[in-house]
Amino acid sequence: MNDKPARSHGRLSQSASLQPRELMTDRPRLKGAWTAKVLTLFPETFPGVLGASLTGKALKDGLWALEPIGLRTFGTGKHRQVDDTPAGGGAGLVMKPDVMGRALDMASSGTPNDPAKWPRVYLSPRGKPFDQRDAERFAQAEGMTLVCGRFEGLDQRVIDHYALEEISIGDYVLTGGELAAQVLLDATVRLIPGVLGNAESTQEESFQNDLLEHPQYTKPAEWRGHDIPPVLLSGDHGAVAKWRREQAENLTLERRPDLWIRYNQPDAETN
Fold it and tell me: Least enclosed by CB within 10 Å: which of 72, 78, 190, 242?
């Protein structure tokens, strides 16, 4: 008898499948629920933080759906290769167009071609900076497809062929797009009706009307020598609203002059 363990001993085995790895398949999905399809080399990293708190409860309740699609499934050769050396030479590896094309074709099945109804986004450090307006736009769609990059990025022909919208969450480089995708989804999903429970909670937060949010306070009225501003305890709703607006304007002017310009000139073009 041969007692030599198999090479996969101690590791989870995986079998390839062309079906997306739907999460929480034992949970209901409401008809027409907003759906995110995420193309990634690491589908097991989802839902991540999206499975916690209110976004996680909404996912469990079927208010939105998440379908991570493992890219390795579409890889080529015995080792299911998903990348290759860059044309023209250079360091690193580039994600293969044939692999990503097959994955995007599968993810596109049953989704609208209109990008307004179903955005297709590639998370990229060279993309347009993600902001609250993007989150609002995405939340109003039927769902979206997110492509998580790795290595040196994605073959440009895929971006061009599928008209992928490139989005960045900041001026820095991550090892992959998975964390960026979760940031984008968290900002978007919380705007879906019913997720937060109280629609009014999104009306006075940062970036609404191009202003940062005013300071917030709660009980006790005095803490370590610091008092709640008296106006907030006055019961004068008009005075409270005026104070909050002034605080929001002052903070925006001090910390985000780019937003301040947009606030004062709504039609101005900003970079």
Answer: 78
